[in-house]
Amino acid sequence: MREATIRAIGLAAVGGYAAFIGWVYVREPQTTAELTGGITAAIGAYRIDQQAFDDGLQFFRREQFEAARTAFERADAARQDPRTQFYIAYSFYRQGWGRVYQDDALFRRGLEAVTRAIALAPDGRLVVDDTDLKMRSADELKAELEAGLRLELSDVNPLRVFKSRK
């Protein structure tokens, strides 16, 4: 091989490695599953575990939200599927909603998940086609979670007990 060819191959390898390190720095994967899932998502090969997702939907519809989140997290271990992240956020909302008060810790975790879902969605817009849900867009869910975290005068309104959960 010629010296110029070897240098070009070495330069390309260094450039690819630098791009990978930059990608890891920006994405900050917390687990190996997130790392490998992020790489496969970048090349368009990422798929969720459909059986685990279906199990999560069954738990969600029976209002077993912790079990639903466990199944959804198993379905999308790399946290790369916007629809699954939306359902995780919605489960935090449904579990944390109360007629008298909201569970701020659950709402914060739901806000993190819906923000992640919006970031993963094409063009930042996510609408889930599920007739069982009262909120189908990630923007609407995010607004509801943010409103639940704000302290307002309406929080002490006694008529609030008649408000329905979405």
Structure report:
This protein has 166 residues and is mostly helical. 62% of the residues lie in helices and 0% in strands. It has helices at 3-27, 32-42, 50-61, 65-75, 82-96, 104-120, 138-149. α3 packs antiparallel against α4 (65-75), α5 packs parallel to α7 (138-149) and α6 packs antiparallel against α7 (138-149). The longest helix has 25 residues, at 3-27. It starts with a helix and ends in a 17-residue tail after the last helix. The mean pLDDT is 85.
SS content category: mainly alpha
What gap, in angstroms, lies between the N and C termini?
A: 67 Å
Q: What is the 3D form?
A: elongated
Which residue ranges are poorly predicted, with pLDDT under 50 across at least 5 consecutive positions?
none
Rg over CA atoms: 21 Å
How would you describe the oligomerization state of the chains in this entry? single chain
Helix content: 55-70%
SS elements, strand count: 0
The total count of helices amounts to: 7
Round the mean pLDDT to the nearest integer and report it. Answer: 85
List the helices and strands and how they pair.
Blueprint: H1 3-27, H2 32-42, H3 50-61, H4 65-75, H5 82-96, H6 104-120, H7 138-149
Helix pairs in contact: 3-4, 4-5, 5-6, 5-7, 6-7
Short description:
The chain is mainly alpha-helical and 166 residues long.
